[in-house]
């Protein structure tokens, strides 16, 4: 287990280079994510957590059926990868590390596996309820809810991620 983690850590040190490979600000997704953040960053700092989650889901749910499919996850991964490659240098160091590591973990697991971690009824779609199974959303803004151990079951999330969860603890 320890050796496995050491190998993961070693591989993860390469993640910014992987994510930054061959992408420019003109690639699909960069402008879309810039617009999404501009419209929602302040909103999510103050609005009830569920409303913020709804906006994020609406961004990913291109066919509007209320759930996230594998195709929609692939599109989001491509968008985030291109955006990250174009914008990572202007991000705060911690955001840069968290997003870069998230991309790397998603690619290491494979997007099908990432979907399965959340798709508890196994229908191939991730609903709002499945995505937020470890979080009790309430009237507080999302950052506050996620920082509250009574509302966010961090251990449950770590169980989903398995050994990969330890990598996120290395970010400070
Ligand atoms: Ca959908
Ligand atoms: Ca499902």
UniProtKB/TrEMBL annotation:
Pfam families: EF-hand_5
Segment forming the signal sequence: 1-19
Domain EF-hand span(s) in chain numbering: 106-141
Key words of the record: Signal
MF GO annotations: calcium ion binding
Entries under InterPro entries matching the protein: EF-hand-dom_pair, EF_Hand_1_Ca_BS, EF_hand_dom
Keyword Chaperone set for record: no
Protein name listed in UniProt: EF hand
Originating species: Oceanibacterium hippocampi
């Amino acid at each position: 287990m320890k050796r496995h983690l050491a190998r993961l850590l070693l591989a993860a040190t390469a993640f910014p280079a992987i994510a930054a490979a061959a992408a420019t600000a003109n690639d699909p997704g960069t402008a879309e994510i810039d617009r999404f953040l501009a419209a929602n960053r302040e909103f999510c700092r103050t609005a009830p957590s569920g409303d913020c989650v709804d906006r994020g889901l609406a961004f990913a749910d291109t066919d509007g059926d209320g759930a996230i499919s594998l195709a929609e996850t692939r599109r989001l991964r491509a968008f985030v990868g291109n955006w990250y490659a174009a914008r990572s240098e202007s991000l705060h160091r911690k955001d840069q590390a968290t997003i870069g590591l998230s991309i790397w973990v998603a690619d290491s697991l494979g997007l099908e596996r990432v979907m399965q971690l959340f798709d508890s009824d196994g229908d191939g779609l991730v609903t709002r309820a499945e995505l937020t199974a470890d979080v009790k959303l309430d009237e507080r803004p999302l950052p506050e809810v996620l920082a509250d151990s009574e509302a966010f079951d961090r251990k449950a999330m770590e169980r989903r991620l398995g050994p990969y969860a330890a990598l996120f603890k290395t970010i400070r």
